Amino acid sequence: xxxxxxxxxxxxxxxxxxxxxxxxxxxxxxxxxxxxxxxxxxxxxxxxxxxxxxxxxxxxxxxxxxxxxxxxxxxxxxxxxxxxxxxxxxxxxxxxx
Length: 97
Hints:
97 residues; alpha+beta; Trna Endonuclease, Chain: A, domain 1
């Protein structure tokens, strides 16, 4: 349900959202293009625990921006995902989440 909500909010600001899968080992929920940046977004329902898939993506592709969102986070909480485009714009590069 959290991923469906996230997709709905992402598509309000972005034309498309993709996902990334690396064999059977890793899968990132959403990949979006924000200006000149490809941004992986991992969605967790409550707390951010293990985010191994996005860590794998980060290690492989070294994105300038990325986000792990959940209801409880110090970055962009799931319930504020409707502000993602604005939030990414304020972050510059090096967003980790």
